[in-house]
Amino acid sequence: MTDQQRIDDYADEVVRRLVASPDERRRRRAELVGHLTDAAEAGELAAALDRLGSPESAARSFAAERTRPLAPTARRFAAVALDNLPLIGVTVALLVVDAVRVLNEGGGFAATFPPIPYVEIGDVCVTAAPLRCGDEAYPGAGPFRAIGVPIALCWSILGLGILESRTGTTPGKRLLRLRVVTEDGLRVTVGSALLRRLSFLLGPLAWLDWVPLLWGDRRRLLDRVSGTKVVSDG
C-alpha cells in the first residue's frame, strides 16, 4: 500500500465518524490529507499517524460537537412533538374513538400517550408495558390500533433512529437546530440510535425515561444508557 492510499483510507475512516455537513466533512478531510501528505513528504508519515492515534481518536479531536452546549429542554420537547406527529395523530384518533364509545356505552377512558403496543398470539397477549393488554386496552379502536399504532411506532423508533444514525438529526431536530451525537461528539451508531428510542414500547411509562432530563446534564435515561446526547447545532 502506498503512502497516498494509507492517507486516503485513514482520512476516510476519520471523516466517516464525524457529525457534519458534506461540505464541512470535505473541508476537514482536505485539512487532514494535507497534513498527512506534508508528513509523508518529510518521511514522517508513520510518526504523524502514531500521534493522531486510531481514526476514532483523531475524529474526537476534529469533533466540534464535543464542546457544543446541551440542547435546552424546551427545544427538545418541541422537536420530539414535531418528529412524532404520526404517533400523536394516532393517539388523538384513539382518544376520539374512545370518547365516542364512552358517550354511547359508558365506561372509562383507555387512551394514553404513547399508545400501549401489544401483540396477540392466540389467546396470549404480549406487551412491554405492564398495563392493559388486548381489547381492554383500546376497546373498539379497530384499524387505528391494529394498523395505525404499529406504523406510527415504526416511524418513531426505526425511521427516526435510522435518520439519526446517518445524519445526526431528524426533521424536528433540524428545524429546532439540534443534533444527536455520542458523548465524544461523534456520529451515533444505528444500535445506539435505536436503543435511545425503545422507551416508546413502554406506552405511558416512556415518560419515566424523560425524568432525568429535568436536572443535571439534561439527558434522558436512555441517552445515558446509549452513550448519546443532544446538542445545539448552531
Q: Name the structural class.
A: mainly alpha
Count the domains: 2
User: Helix count?
Assistant: 10
List low-confidence stretches: none
How much helical structure, as a percent, in the residues? 40-55%
What separation lies between the terminal Cα atoms?
40 Å
Count of individual beta strands: 4
Q: What order do the strands of the largest sheet run in, or round the barrel if closed?
A: 1-2
Order of helices and strands: HHHHHHEEHHEHHE
Q: Report on the biggest sheet.
A: 2 strands, antiparallel
Strand content: 5-15%
Shape label: elongated
Radius of gyration: 23 Å
Mean pLDDT score: 84
Structure description:
This protein has 234 residues and is mainly alpha-helical. It folds into two domains: 3-62; 73-232, no CATH class. It is built from ten helices and four strands. It has helices at residues 3-16, 22-41, 45-52, 55-62, 73-83, 85-105, 143-167, 171-175, 190-195, 221-226; strands spanning 118-121, 124-127, 178-182, 228-232. The strands form two sheets. Strands 1-2 form a two-stranded antiparallel sheet. A two-stranded antiparallel sheet has the order 3-4. α1 crosses α4 (55-62) and α6 (85-105) packs antiparallel against α7 (143-167).
